[in-house]
Amino acid sequence: MATPTTPTASRAFTNNSLDGDAVPDEDSSEVTKLFAERLQAWKHAVGYLEDYITATEKTNTAHAKEYEKVLKTVKDPLKEGHHFDQALGGIAGMFENIRSNTQGISNQHHETAKQLKDTVLPTFARLHAEIKNKSKELAKGAGKQSKAVDKARALTQRHIELLGTHTASFDSHGGKLTASDDPYVVQRGVYHRLNKQIQEENNNRQDLITVQNSFAQFEAHVIQTIQHGLGQFMQVVNNQAEQTKTMYGDMVGTSQRVPLDFEWNGFVERNNNVLIDPNAPPRTVSNISFPNQDHRATQPLVAGSLERKGKIMRNYDTNYYVVTPSKFLHEYKTDDNFAKEPVPEFSLYLPDCIIGAASGQKFNVKGKDVSRGKIGNSFSMTHELAFKAHTPQAATQWWGIMSEAAGKTAGGAPAGSTPTSPVASSPTSETDAKHPAPLQTQGLEKQNSVKSSGSAATKSGPTPISSTTPASGVDKKPGEY
């Protein structure tokens, strides 16, 4: 008796199964799963692009807010803005242009974010939805057909195994089987189910071929949509970049078009009442007036150059002298008021001086230098100064004015060498009343107190110094004491 055998099917792990394999050893849903996985990959790829567009949109929104902060740095009016011309074409107009363009850049970022969200992002969102619908279509179509193939193969496999069981029983029992277990009947059942299985397999194969062919077209559509969406994205961001570039260029161009002298000319025009007119002549002392400039106390009684004999070298030096209404004789080096401070070299208060008679071009004055103030004058010594005028007439003029200032009315040159002295009297003018009592010369006071036969001055007026005519036996030259 032959040993019964159980038929075994040889199955290959390939899409092209051997013709002898009734039930191929392959996964009928393997192709469907591969397509589903590929659709998942495309969905994730499009999802990345959606995230990229969304992040770019949020970045532009943030940039718009940041540029609003930038705008605040130049939003307030310029400090000391009145120094700049408010007309267009100047610095104030340049800052106004900066504000306008910075606001435009902020608005452009807002507009870019809006276009990305409303125009570009929906393109990728629709593509994402198409990929998801394609996945559902694959699961409902080819996926469902694959399950039908698996079911038919399972039925065929069970009847093939049943045929093996009954053929084995036929060999072991000598052909004694029931009619339903007859291997012939079972075999025909196998063929029936195998035919249905092959129909399902062929239908599934045709569906997969259709899906496979459609995938090429679908992927081309996906790529075209991606290209279109990125083209829209590029157009939006390029427009934003061009606008930003244009606005920055306008800022720079506006600043470069400001004429170099525009602000200065406007500044000079607005402040012409304050600024110095370069065409105006410079100020001169001769054209200037001030209070009390021509007051009678400022006008000298006599002024000019005289020669004075030196104390050591005994030669004459020329200096500038002035007799003032205040009854002072001032000596200056020159009559120049500008080279240095015009401070008198010495000053004599004529009412306190003894004025000798004029002899030709010469005359003498004896008194104290009072130019050093009250304290210095108390310790100053009495000096006898010998003067010489340029002409006898000039000497007579100087002697007469100084004698009158000293209190004696000039009536001509006295004879001999008789010294003159101030006339003892109370102040006869407003100028004399305002002067304090003159200082006394100590040496002369002692001498004159013995020889004086005149009356003393009153307490309210200057104390006069009397002089007497020397004895006829004393021979003195005119003008000497």
Automatic annotation (TrEMBL):
InterPro entries named among the record's database cross-references: AH/BAR_dom_sf, BAR_4, PH-like_dom_sf, SLM1/RGC1-like_PH, Slm1_PH
Region Disordered: start-end pairs: 1-26, 407-481
Skewed-composition ranges (Polar residues): 1-18, 439-471
Keyword Transferase: no
Protein name per Swiss-Prot or TrEMBL: PH domain-containing protein
Pfam families for this protein: BAR_4 (PF20400), PH_20 (PF20399)
Domain of life: Eukaryota
Phylogenetic classification of the source organism: Eukaryota, Fungi, Dikarya, Ascomycota, Pezizomycotina
Signal peptide residue numbers: none
The SLM1/RGC1-like BAR-like domain, residue ranges: 89-271
Residue ranges annotated for the SLM1/RGC1-like PH domain, each copy included: 290-368
Compositional bias (Low complexity): 415-430
Keyword list, A-Z: Phosphoprotein
